[in-house]
Amino acid sequence: MSKPKETLNPFEIARTQIDRVGKKLNLDGGMLEVLKNPRRELTVHFPVKMDDGKVKVFTGYRVQYNDAIGPFKGGIRYHWNVSLDEVRALACWMTWKCAVMGIPYGGAKGGVICNPKEMSKNELEHMTRRYASEIAIIIGPEKDIPAPDVYTDGQTMAWIMDTISMSKGFAVPGVVTGKPLVIGGSLGRDEATSRGLMYAVREAAKKVKLTLKGATIAVQGFGNVGMHFARLMHDEQGSKIIAVSDSKGGIVSEKGFDPKEVQVFKEKTGSVVGFPGTKPVSNEEILELDVDILAPCALEGVLTSENAPRVKAKIIGEGANGPTTPEADDIFHKRGIVLIPDILANGGGVTVSYFEWVQNLSEFFWTKADVDQKLEGVMVGAFNRVWEMRESKKVDMRQGAYMVAINRVVEAYKWRGIFP
Q1: Domain boundaries, the chain
Q2: Which stretch of DSSP H or E encloses residue 61?
Q3: pLDDT (tens digit per residue) in 369-394
Q4: For 121-256, where are the alpha helices, taking DSSP H only?
Q5: Nearest 5°: CA angle at 175, between 172 and 178?
Q6: How would residue 326 be classed by pLDDT, with cut points 50, 70 and 90?
Q7: Which of 65, 119, 290, 305 would you call most buried, defined as having the most Cβ atoms within 10 angstroms of its Cβ?
């Protein structure tokens, strides 16, 4: 049995990361305090009439962390465990993700405490529209642009966009991203996180002299990100997908398999488990398989000091947010494993959200090829900046990414100054 993981407050973890990097960058105390605190926090309690005629009061949050570089940007999640400190931490991490990607956004995040699995579509719509009207005072295309997150999707964004548009008296597509195509969504958005991850893994492979054609890959988490990543690596890079898993378990085959066929099988049966020609493998074992590339695309905290010494991959690409503990980071760094951290590895999603917003503001839409080409440019640029920081400061990739991001925000403050 592994020792129980320490349950740290997510916002305290986020602030500790800033402290660690701030010391290495010799930032002064005042600047550190600015970076460790959100600019604005809105808590709303609002009534919703449920299907049975009863009124229920929900609590929602929108935390606007930092806008030194540009308007606030970040998802909205619906979950029973949403807390103000969780939303603060996610807004903080969004700040660094946007900064490391080099896109002109600050970080924000929102959430409503609810159980969407127990609510009807009608109740979800009423709750979404009322939440949108409550936070309407601080969101907008030039102020703060929400997006989907846990248990929210294109439909949720469409309701928010419509609610804000009704109050303005005209359509405001640029108020949210991750919308359906017909109301201003962008081509390529559904696979953007996975495509960005593919580009990041490709750049890392060049650095460690690994040929991607025939390289073996294991993917933990065969959801939207993991599935598209496996498909892109198989179809566009010629890599060999030998193992994937979902919440019910995993499959492994030394010969490899086509992830598109596994996806069809999963749609029919509800899981990848039992796909013909494969052996079962657990979610824990999949992390320790003898593969060239490991992509944790499911939950946080799966790579720990307990299993990190047994990981055999040469490259780890974090499709999920926070899958690696700080202790595991140190072990991978000592062992010479290249870990592409989440704020870089899965930055493709927010990058294409940015493209969607640009298309909305200009009222001119791009082809899928345009989106992919521009995403590649952003991912390669961000990867190279982080790699150079890693080499010059002799740190791991995660600290390199944080250094690039924090440097950028600090530089923005230096130019802007402190008002008044």
Answers
A1: 7-37, 39-172, 192-345
A2: strand 55-66
A3: 999 999 999 999 999 999 999 999 99
A4: 121-135, 154-168, 192-207, 224-236
A5: 110
A6: confident
A7: 65
CATH topology of domain 39-172: Rossmann fold (3.40.50)
Once rounded to an integer, what is the mean pLDDT over residues 307-326? 94
- What's the whole-number mean pLDDT along residues 4-17? 75
Fold of domain 192-345: Rossmann fold (3.40.50)
pLDDT for position 113? 98
Other Cβ atoms closer than 10 A to 40: 15
CA-CA distance, 300 to 145, in Å (whole number)?
25
List all residues 6 or more positions away from 233 whose beta carbon is below 8 Å from its beta carbon: 198, 201, 212, 217, 239, 241, 293
Note whether 131 and 60 are within 8 A (CB). yes
Q: Which residue has the tokens 């991959």?
A: 313
The tens digit of pLDDT for each residue in 124-163 reads 999 999 999 999 999 999 999 999 998 999 999 999 999 9
- In the numeric block, which tokens belong to residue 247? 């919440």
| pLDDT of amino acid 13 | 81
Q: Evaluate if pTM is beyond 0.70.
A: yes
Return the closest-CA partner of residue 406 out of 17, 58, 12, 70. 17
Place of tokens 């009207």: 133
Catalogue the active-site residues: 109
